[in-house]
Amino acid sequence: MPAPADRCIAATRTWIRTYAKEWESQPLPTSPINRDELFDRYGQHVSICRHCQKALEGIKIWKRNSYVVLGASIVVLNFTPAATVTVVGSLLMLPLLNAVERSITQGGHDHHKT
């Protein structure tokens, strides 16, 4: 038994049988190539959303600053205890920033709920 949601499909098939009989024998169009193209979050949302773009810019700045702090602590502080803590902090910050960036560009982040 068809569900109420199937009424539009049944109506479309009835219309094709009534008004477009030449289409009835045609094969259906192919489906999207893969799931990533179908659910391209960056192309469909992030690239045009000012909030997401601002968040990505902030992440980019944090990443750049983490690399600068990492390099400066290795070069300038010569492996003192403070440099070791700074290096470890920078190394822990980079994967976290990458995870946040992935959640924004690939899904999992709903900025409208925050």
Q: Which descriptors would you attach to this protein?
A:
single chain; mainly alpha; 114 residues; 0% strand; rod-shaped
Structure, described:
The structure is a single chain. With 114 residues, the chain is mainly alpha-helical. It has a domain of 79 residues. Helices cover 69% and strands 0% of the residues.
Helix content: 55-70%
Question: What is the element string, with H for helices and E for strands?
Answer: HHHHHH
Residue-averaged pLDDT: 82
Low-confidence stretches: none
Shape: rod-shaped
Structural class of the secondary elements?
mainly alpha
* Distance, first to last CA: 42 Å
Q: In what range is the share of β-strand residues?
A: under 5%
Largest sheet: none
Compute the CA-based radius of gyration: 26 Å
Query: Total number of β-strand segments?
Result: 0
Number of helices, counting only DSSP H or I runs of 4 residues or more? 6
Task: Please render the helix and strand layout as text.
Layout lengths: L6 H13 L1 H4 L10 H4 L2 H6 L3 H26 L5 H26 L8
Helix pairs in contact: 5-6
